[in-house]
Amino acid sequence: MDPKQCLRSIQKAVSAFQIRSFRPICDGWDFFVMEVNGEWMFRFPRHPEGIAQLKREAAFLEKVSPHLPGSVPRYERICWDSDPPFGGYRKVAGHSLSDARNIPPNVSADLGHFLSALHSLPPEEVFPSDSVEQADWVALWQRRVRLWEERVLKELDPFLESAVRGWFRRLLEIMDSSSVRLTPIHGDLSAEHVLIRDGRLSGVIDWGDACWGDPALDFAALCHDMGETLARETARHYTGRQDATFWVRADLYRKLAPLHGMLHALEHGDRRIWESNMRRLRETAV
Question: Which residues does the UniProt record annotate as the domain Aminoglycoside phosphotransferase (predicted)?
């Protein structure tokens, strides 16, 4: 996405806004992100469906932010009719945990308290238009599995294909036989989206995948990106429900995580992303 076109879009929509400096932050799969004046973050959807996603994210964060023990984006400058459309919020203080040399010892406790608050919010209050039940969550993963089977598995060697099919079966069996209590979740809790300041959690960003889902998925993201030790330590400070299959589901979500990137790589012809996720899948399967 052209940064200059994005700047023109901001300036045209918010004429009184003076742009003194800018720098591209993230050229992601779904959004192009720019920092402006060192104080604002502007997100530009790459695809038409991204507009609806950004609207949903902004509405969700408006409802949940007063209840969370950490900062989250609050969209103040939004223009859906601009070219390209965008949403802008004041920069959340802190730096990404992915940039930290070591994980500060207090971060796991802070994350535990944060996820406890998020997962305890009444879904009907933060997602008033949703009617998600366990069957819908299962159906979502059934569709996801079918898509991976059609597009990704045929690219794998027999050993990896067998391992992945086993994970598919186990996850769907658990979902079908147990009652998964759904809650509001972040949906993509990678180290890149966790911000720290002075050794403490300062905020969580990038809520585009927030939904009413399985809370084990947020712990799977911690495991996948920051290791099981941090995820388990976070759970020590977590007051949400951990049923008998909670950690089994988290482990299966973690194992299947590279398939998201592999599908994206196939759809966009990105060999680098494919190789990176293939390497992670092999390490997981061994």
Answer: 22-242
Q: State residue 66's pLDDT score.
A: 94
- Write out the residue range of the structural domain in which residue 82 sits: 3-92
- Read off the tokens for 78: 């939004």
Q: Which residue has the tokens 């998925």?
A: 217
pTM for this entry: 0.93
- Buried b / exposed e along 260-274 (16+ C-beta atoms within 10 A): ebbbebeeeeeeebb
Q: Where are the beta strands (DSSP E) in the chain?
A: 22-27, 31-36, 40-45, 75-79, 86-90, 95-96, 183-185, 194-197, 200-204, 211-213
Q: Are residue 254 and residue 167 in the same domain, yes or no?
A: yes
Which range has the worst mean pLDDT, 117-126, 230-239, 260-269? Answer: 117-126
Render 66-83 in DSSP notation, one character per residue.
GGSSSB---EEEEESSSS
CB count in 10 Å sphere of residue 171: 21
- Is the model's pLDDT at 127 over the cut of 80? no
Q: Where residue 53 sits, what CATH number does that domain have?
A: 3.30.200.20
**Are 109 and 220 within 8 A, CB to CB?**
no
Per-residue pLDDT tens digits for 15-35: 888 899 999 987 677 889 999
Q: Which of 45, 72, 92 is where one domain is finished?
A: 92
